[in-house]
Design a protein that fits this description.
The complex is a heterodimer.
Chain A lengths: L7 H9 L2 H23 L4 H17 L1 H14 L3 E5 L2 H14 L4 E4 L3 H5 L2 H7 L3 E4 L2 H8 L16 H12 L8 H18 L2 E4 L3 E3 L4 E6 L3 H8 L2 E7 L3 E2 L5 H13 L6 E5 L7 E7 L3 H5 L15 H5 L1 H6 L10 H11 L16 H5 L6 H14 L5 H15 L1 H17 L10 H5 L10 H13 L22
Parallel strand pairs in A: 1-10, 2-3, 2-4, 4-7, 5-8, 7-10
Antiparallel strand pairs in A: 5-6, 6-9
Chain B lengths: L1 E4 L3 H6 L1 H13 L3 E3 L9 H5 L7 H11 L4 E4 L2 H10 L6 H10 E3 H8 L7 E2 L3 E5 L2 H6 L15 H6 L2 E2 L2 E2 L15 H4 L1 H17 L4 E4 L2 H13 L5 E4 H5 L4
Parallel strand pairs in B: 1-2, 1-3, 3-4, 5-7, 6-8, 6-9, 9-10
Classes of the chains: A alpha/beta, B alpha/beta.
């Protein structure tokens, strides 16, 4: 992956070069954020639902071991074969062994971020298994050989004209056709053929109910159902954190999920899978892949509450302006930035810094993950573990030294302002990233500290202050009336 | 009641007029205000960059400068939030705790402590309010659009007391401006794009001024406005609440 060599800032800069695209991308996601707001505000108990979901997930994370065993036992009772995978490699090997045992070399896969994280497609294709993603957005991304840029809207960064060109190249649609309905109909016809010919289907899992051993898959396209119902072998992959204790808890999560994701009251399909049809095999793979390590980090454990709605991406101004692929990780956006360093801190050291810490993510999150606080905490960990760039370390150390002493601060502050006034080209050049597209602040007025030393006390005694400078707005009298 | 005036480092160096307006406004409201001269910085630039472990000296200095006051007031939501969230002292944790609870952002102090309900201020201009994220979602100075909760706004309530002032409606009233501390240089392209989009929202709405409780946001937006030779000006809220024309 060549792209991973560039950090978020560099990839974002490339994305932003096409400003018209950025404006359109930003607008599309903001529109979804607004739909989410309308849906959330139509439910008076919205905030109570978020709190309930957060507490249920808290309970799950505190008792994960027991719930997983309860789920496993009930799923087995229902006739599902349960597998455990410690990491991506083990997960991929299990999928392959299931297919190999049945001599199957074609798989249809509905949306599963976990299998994207595990790079299952590449693994299977290398071993001669043909995989087709059946979620339309993921299908488009697969045709274009790109990872999804958004967990709910995998090709949100692509315009319909670009999708038309991809269809023309790979599926032979007429050149220049970009009407979404026409393209969707074409993709549907193509995928129908895939569904009826595939003997094996793989789905993700949104919620797995410990009490009953069933699991729920939410889609809008019905593609998971189509694949599963026509398959002779159904495989489902889930992260171990997807457990919920009881079936009654589903109501809380299903009400939150689609509203948070797209502003819909509920996903078109919320399908419960409980036991195999006669003659069908059902396999479920419980995957750890770093989750138990994250569970052991008290500051970051709550990231495992995530239900993958993508609301934090839609609201994040950095995500909206920089595009999901700039995060060079399967899960992009704010939630990706707190999950990724757990998997590979060096590779993802830049992600917790790809945020202004504005806090919008934490407040749209349906399970109330304190995302922006975790971003702040990851920054501390990344620096302490030695993954910050050296130039940055030197700069911040100089800053800390300057600011820890009033005398050095006053001297350097004055020097800084002197430089701004007298040799502006020293700072106003292309090596100063501030100045590239912004003017420097005006340093001509003297500091407040200097003004206060001359005038502050006088004013206190009711005397008129000296007017040694001319502020932008006249500082005249104003009375407080009670 | 004696107030320690906390003027953040960059406000002290670049925006003395906002600090002067804060001082004058508080004194005109009958409050005894003292500016401890040996103050520097709250430590936020280091901490947000991942170097919170280097901020102990800033913390100690803050405690030394401000522990004697009844309240500590600053014209900066972001710096106040940093103190409230992260000020700690190895020698005297209880003292640091008490400082954290008595540190206020200016608008919050005027609203919650002084309970100001009239101001004799005049500012006959169209003003767009930029919600600083740390003021909005950190200090909860107003209701954020993310929550399903009753609306309120402390800065709007105060601005509505200013004669002649007309607040304009924005398309995205609480979207971040992209300053973000060292983010503004580390992620220059994203930061500027975010800033440009905020500026455009204010321009579309016909504002003459962008105001905010945070000068860090305004410094960033002003830099963009000036580069583009815009007639739209950035002004800290203290200067508007202290203005007579």
């Amino acid at each position: 992956m060549e792209k991973a060599l560039k950090d978020h800032a560099a990839l974002a800069e490339e994305f932003i070069k096409d400003e018209e695209r950025v404006d359109w991308h930003d607008g599309a996601l903001w529109w979804i954020r607004q739909k989410r707001d309308i849906a959330a505000k139509n439910i008076p108990e919205w905030e109570a639902l978020r709190e309930a979901a957060s507490q249920i997930k808290n309970n799950v994370l505190s008792n994960l071991h027991d719930y997983l065993l309860e789920f496993e036992a009930n799923a087995q009772k229902n006739g599902i074969t349960v597998h455990w995978a410690a990491d991506a490699e083990e997960h991929n090997a299990i999928v392959y062994s299931i297919l190999k045992a049945k001599d199957i070399n074609q798989l249809v896969k509905s949306k599963s971020m976990l299998t994207e994280e595990c790079h299952l497609n590449e693994y299977l294709i290398e071993r001669g298994v043909d995989v087709i993603n059946s979620d339309l957005g993921e299908y488009i991304q697969q045709l274009d050989n790109e990872p999804p840029s958004h967990i709910v809207l995998p090709c949100i960064h692509k315009r319909k004209e670009e999708i038309g060109a991809i269809f023309h190249e790979h599926l032979g649609t007429e050149k220049g056709v970009s009407d979404p309905t026409t393209l969707t109909r074409f993709a549907r016809r193509h995928l129908r053929n895939v569904f009826v010919t595939r003997r094996a289907a793989l789905t993700g899992v949104n919620f797995a109910v410990a009490e009953t051993g069933e699991y729920v898959v939410c889609t809008n396209e019905g593609n998971a159902d189509m694949g599963a119902h026509l398959s002779e072998v159904q495989i489902s992959s889930m992260g171990i954190e997807k457990i919920i204790p009881k079936k009654k808890h589903l109501g809380v999560f299903l009400r939150l999920l689609a509203r948070s994701a797209t502003g819909q009251p509920i996903t078109i399909y919320s399908s419960h899978f409980r036991k195999p049809r006669p003659g069908q095999e059902m396999h479920l793979i419980l995957v750890d892949y770093g989750r138990s390590r994250q569970l052991g980090r008290p500051d970051f454990r709550d990231s495992l509450k995530c239900i993958r709605c993508g609301a934090c991406m839609n609201t994040c101004p950095v995500y909206r302006k920089s595009g999901g692929l700039s995060y060079h990780n399967t899960i992009s956006g704010p939630i990706g930035a707190i999950l990724a360093p757990n998997l590979d801190m060096r590779k993802h050291a830049d992600l917790p810094f790809a945020s202004t810490l504005c806090g919008s993510c934490s407040n749209v999150c349906p399970v109330k993950i304190n995302i922006h606080e975790q971003l702040y905490k990851w920054r501390q960990v990344i620096v302490q573990e030695g993954y910050a760039a050296n130039t940055k370390v030197m700069g911040i150390k100089a800053m800390a030294w300057t600011l820890s002493s009033p005398a050095s601060y006053a001297r350097i502050g004055k020097a800084g302002r002197w430089v701004l006034n007298n040799i502006p080209f020293a700072v106003n050049n292309k090596f100063n990233p501030w100045y590239k597209q912004r003017e420097m602040p005006d340093g001509s007025k003297g500091s407040f500290g200097e003004w206060y030393a001359k005038n502050g006390r006088n004013e206190e005694e009711g005397k008129q202050p000296e007017t040694t400078q001319t502020p932008d707005v006249p500082l005249t009298d104003m009375h407080h009336e009670r | 009641m004696t107030i320690g005036l906390f003027i953040p480092c960059y406000v002290n160096q670049f925006y003395p007029q906002a600090a002067i307006a804060t001082l004058q406004l508080l004194r005109k409201l009958g409050v005894d205000v003292v500016y401890p001269p040996k103050q520097t910085c709250c430590g936020q630039p280091m901490a947000n960059s991942g170097f919170e472990h280097l901020t102990q000296e800033c913390n100690d200095l803050f405690v030394e400068n401000f522990s004697r006051f009844d309240y500590i007031v600053a014209p900066s939501a972001s710096c106040v939030l940093h103190i409230k969230d992260h000020l700690h002292s190895a020698d005297d944790p209880a003292l640091a705790d008490s400082i954290r609870t008595k540190t206020y952002e200016l608008v919050e102090f005027l609203t919650d402590v002084l309970q100001v309900d009239t101001l004799k201020a005049t500012f006959p201009h169209k003003v767009g309010l930029h919600q600083s994220c740390h003021g909005l979602r950190g200090l909860h100075l107003a209701q954020m659009s993310e929550l399903n909760a009753a609306p309120f706004s402390k800065p709007v309530r105060l601005l509505n007391m200013v004669e002649g002032l007309e607040l304009v409606d924005l398309d995205r009233p609480d979207d971040c401006c992209g300053f973000g501390g060292t983010f503004c240089v580390a992620e220059e392209a994203v930061s500027v794009k975010m800033g440009k989009d905020r500026v455009q929202d204010h321009q579309r709405s016909g504002a003459d001024y962008i105001t905010s409780v945070d000068l860090s946001c305004l410094m960033h937006l002003e830099g963009i406005l000036q580069r583009n030779r815009s007639g739209l000006k950035a002004l800290h809220i203290a200067e508007i609440l202290n203005a007579t024309h």
